[in-house]
C-alpha cells in the first residue's frame, strides 16, 4: 500500500490528510509535505492520521520530528486519531501509546475539534 498526503486549510490551520501506510519507504513523503507547509509559513499544523492503517518506527520518528520542528517555529501541532477500538488510524494510536509517546501530542477526534481554539485534546 502507498501513502497519500493531501493538503487543505481550515482557518489558520494547515491540514495534512494522511492515508495508507506510514513506514520506512513512505515516511519521507510525509516529512517532505510537513517541511513544505512550514516553508510556506504554515506553523499551525493538523495531521489527520485517521486513515493510516499501519505505522512503524519510521513513521513515529517523522511525527516526533514534526513536533520538534513545529515547536521550534512557535507553532502548534495537533493529531487526529480515532479512539483505540475504532477506525483505521487506531493502529497509530496504539503504537504511540505502546511507545509511551502519545502524551507528547495534542490528539483530537476530528478536524473540527482539532481546529477549534476552545476544544480540549483527548486524554492520553
The helix fraction, in percent, is 25-40%
Superfamily at the CATH H level? STAS domain
Secondary structure tally: strands: 5
Shape: globular
Q: CA-to-CA gap between the ends?
A: 29 Å
Q: Which consecutive residue ranges, at least 5 long each, have pLDDT under 50?
A: none
Q: In the CATH hierarchy, what is the class?
A: Alpha Beta
Quick tags:
124 residues; alpha/beta; Transcription Regulator spoIIAA; five-stranded mixed β-sheet; 4 helices; globular
Task: List strands and helices in order, with pairings.
Blueprint: E1 3-10, E2 13-22, H1 27-39, E3 44-55, H2 57-72, E4 76-80, H3 90-99, E5 106-108, H4 111-115
Parallel strand pairs: 2-3, 3-4, 4-5
Antiparallel strand pairs: 1-2
Question: Could you walk me through the main structural features you see in this protein, from its secondary elements to its overall organization?
Answer:
With 124 residues, the protein is an alpha/beta fold. It has a single domain (3-115), classed as Transcription Regulator spoIIAA (2-Layer Sandwich), CATH 3.30.750.24. 35% of the residues lie in helices and 31% in strands. The chain has helices at 27-39, 57-72, 90-99, 111-115, and strands at residues 3-10, 13-22, 44-55, 76-80, 106-108. It has a 5-stranded mixed beta sheet with strand order 1-2-3-4-5, sandwiched between helices. Helix 1 runs parallel beside helix 2. The N and C termini lie far apart (29 Å). The model has no long low-confidence stretch (mean pLDDT 90).
Amino acid at each position: 500500500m502507498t501513502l497519500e498526503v493531501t493538503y487543505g486549510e481550515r482557518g489558520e490551520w494547515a491540514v495534512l490528510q494522511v492515508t495508507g501506510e506510514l513506514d520506512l519507504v513512505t515516511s519521507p513523503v510525509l516529512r517532505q509535505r510537513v517541511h513544505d507547509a512550514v516553508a510556506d509559513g504554515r506553523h499551525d499544523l493538523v495531521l489527520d492520521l485517521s486513515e493510516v492503517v499501519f505505522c512503524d518506527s519510521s513513521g513515529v520518528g517523522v511525527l516526533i520530528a514534526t513536533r520538534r520542528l513545529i515547536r521550534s517555529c512557535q507553532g502548534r501541532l495537533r493529531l487526529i486519531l480515532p479512539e483505540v477500538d475504532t477506525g483505521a488510524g487506531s493502529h497509530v494510536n496504539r503504537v504511540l501509546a505502546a511507545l509511551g509517546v502519545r502524551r507528547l501530542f495534542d490528539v483530537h477526534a476530528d478536524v473540527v475539534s482539532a481546529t477549534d481554539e476552545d476544544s480540549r485534546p483527548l486524554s492520553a
